[in-house]
Design brief:
CATH architecture of the largest domain: 3-Layer(aba) Sandwich
CATH superfamily of the largest domain: Mur-like, catalytic domain
Oligomer: single chain
Shape: globular
CATH class of the largest domain: Alpha Beta
Largest sheet: 8 strands, mixed
Helix content: 40-55%
Number of helices: 17
Strand order of the largest sheet: 4-3-2-5-1-6-7-8
Number of strands: 17
Number of domains: 2
CATH topology of the largest domain: UDP-N-acetylmuramoyl-L-alanine:D-glutamate ligase
Radius of gyration: 21 Å
Structural class: alpha/beta
Amino acid sequence: MKEYNDAIEFLYTSMPMFQRVGATAYKPGLDTVKLLDNQFGNPHLKYRSIHIAGTNGKGSTAHTIAAILQSAGYRVGLYTSPHLVDFRERIRVNGKMISHEAVIDFVNRYRAMSLNCHPSFFELTMTMAFEYFANEKVDIAVIETGLGGRLDSTNIITPILSIITNISFDHTAFLGNTLPAIASEKAGIIKSSVPVVIGEAQGEVREVFVQKAIEQHAPISFAEDNNCFDSVESLNDSVLYRATRYGDIVGELVGDCQPKNAATILTALPLLEAQGLSITSQAVKEGFAHVTTLTGLMGRWMTLQRNPHVVCDTGHNVGGWEYISRRLHSIEGTLHMVIGFVNDKDVSHILEMMPKTAQYYFTNAQIERAMPATQLAEIATQCGLIGEQYPSVEDAYNAALAVAQPSDTIFIGGSTFIVADLLTLLQI
């Protein structure tokens, strides 16, 4: 569809996307987005919302909460980023992506306006989402921050609940180079008298959240303080959480990080119920068990085939890799690692976590921000990782497939965009 392609091209080229080009696209502050939001009639005021920030886990948390609310009978908007294959993944209502026509219409109306501002890609995309949710008459919208919290464009909303999943080192050039500094930026989403749930926080980081909540008179709950389930059992392709408030729950999302996310979600749900939302045990079980089908979530320890076992994961920073690496080290048999990163991150700490005995296929995504495979291979060699270089994810993946035995495992990841290139290749 030419009109749609033209609209997307306008978004990408007129307002560069941070995920593709990096720092040059970053525009902190709320002045521009407030002006833009006002021009479109302040659509975010027309429905309730839930605001989710954090270094890792916010995507899984946002999608699961959306799935639970959908299962409870609500019409739910879901705004997340980045997308993996299709731009429209960012904006969904009850799991269905925004239509091509709605994207075209929004871009055409924006281009016809004479606004005295130059919004970023994220600011314009967010406004599109907020208006679309209003037009679709959602009951509630689950809104994920893009980068940070305090100055993130989504922070114009006043939600009924704020959630901060955890704090780790990522985007330090913008958010600060200490965990308390990063926490302070994320804590910017805590609003006056609005309850907030914190997934993971210890020491100074926890104190940052406590002090901010006190300043804002915001009731604060720490998931780590709650006994959300008696035990966790890993099944073949799921996780069993025993004796939760809602009974035994089977979670579709697997990976060592998911029990933390589950605890955060299970701490949040009673607070949503206290605000008048009706959430049954059956809705909770349905949401946890069928989150990918209900919301379209992809890329979280995602199995793509068996024999050999092919799995991908969008974890892309130190915090995410602390969980991924534990799982990789536990894999029996030969492990093939197709990996690539963006060029504005210190990847040495991540590479040091990777299994030394795996076979490596160093590559790069087809974006401007990608770290060249040659550069990655040099850094990896210094970390004791040995492998070959490939000019594309397709080449690296095919090379791994060609030598992998049925009992082997192939992992694809390192950067969200490596996974995006793979899923595009496989047309998933």
